[in-house]
Specification:
Largest sheet: 7 strands, mixed
Order of helices and strands: EHEEHEEEEHHHEEEEE
Structural class: alpha+beta
Shape: globular
Bound molecules: biotin
Helix content: 10-25%
Radius of gyration: 18 Å
CATH topology of the largest domain: BirA Bifunctional Protein, domain 2
Strand order of the largest sheet: 1-2-3-7-6-5-4
CATH architecture of the largest domain: 2-Layer Sandwich
Number of domains: 2
Length: 245
């Protein structure tokens, strides 16, 4: 059955994820809060998410789960489903992208979309999830200092209606994020990984040492599996490895 999605647009808000946290008790499953402008957008690793006002999509999707529906240990499934939904949407717009583990979306070597997923855990189950998404849509110039940004418009030379694109994107999110998740989802996610099966440079965050490795997949608990040149397989959790691009 299709989820009914309700989208609430704000002209300006600090962060759509933060607004969802404030309203969490009143939110229905599959509510979306979107903002024309975010004044304190939050990114991964405690970073700020900067956007040019009115140019990009910044929104959060709220998912509610029944007790026993989704174990906390399976939280990576949400990253997989959301990232694949983004690829479905972008492919539909003629933009072929890859997933940079865990859930950045890359066009060639540039970042077009980032996600901040915040889950509430209750007795080893996920009771709800806020999936915050920032997608670069119409922005043409990015401030120096942002790492490798690119927008849909820079790729296709089109100008998009943010409201129309959000409706299309929510349809993709709804079909990927409805339980039960598809059986082949983990394989599909792996096949869409940026740099899969190629040797590239990485840095081990604990030692600060660079090394060359090949991404071979992701473990069920969401760790990135990288084979070194010596054939050793190393597993990295988020923040334990950084890509040298
Ligand atoms: C990243 O660092 O790549 C994650 C960026 C996530 C940004 C989105 S924009 C909408 C939502 N609200 C926020 O404050 N952050 C997320």
């Amino acid at each position: 059955m299709k989820n009914k999605i309700s989208i609430e647009w704000y002209d300006e808000i600090d962060s759509t994820n933060t607004e969802m946290q404030r309203k969490i008790d009143a939110l229905e499953n599959f509510s979306v809060i979107a903002a024309v402008n975010q004044t304190a957008g939050r990114g991964q690793r405690g970073n700020t998410w900067h956007v040019q006002e009115g140019k990009n999509l910044t929104f959060s999707l709220f998912l509610k789960f029944q007790p026993g529906e989704l174990e906390a240990a399976d939280n990576f499934l949400l990253s997989e489903a959301a990232a694949l939904a983004m690829l479905d949407y972008l492919r539909g717009e003629g933009v072929e992208c890859k997933i940079k583990w865990p859930n950045d979306i890359y066009y060639k070597n540039k970042k077009i979309c980032g996600m901040l997923i915040e889950n509430t855990i209750s007795e080893r189950n996920i009771s709800n999830s806020i999936i915050g998404i920032g997608l670069n849509v119409n922005q043409k110039d990015f401030p120096a200092g942002l790492v490798n940004p690119i927008s849909m418009s820079q790729i296709t030379n089109k100008a998009y209606s943010l409201k129309e694109e959000l409706v299309k994107l929510c349809r993709c999110l709804s079909s990927r994020l409805t339980l039960p998740f598809g059986e082949g989802m983990a394989n599909e996610y792996e096949e869409c990984l940026y740099r899969k099966d190629e040797f590239h440079e990485y840095s081990d965050c604990a030692s600060g040492k660079p090394f060359v490795g090949k991404i071979i997949g992701v473990s069920t608990d969401g760790k990135l599996c990288v084979e070194t040149e010596k054939g050793e397989v190393r597993r990295f959790a988020f923040k334990e490895i950084s890509y040298i691009i």
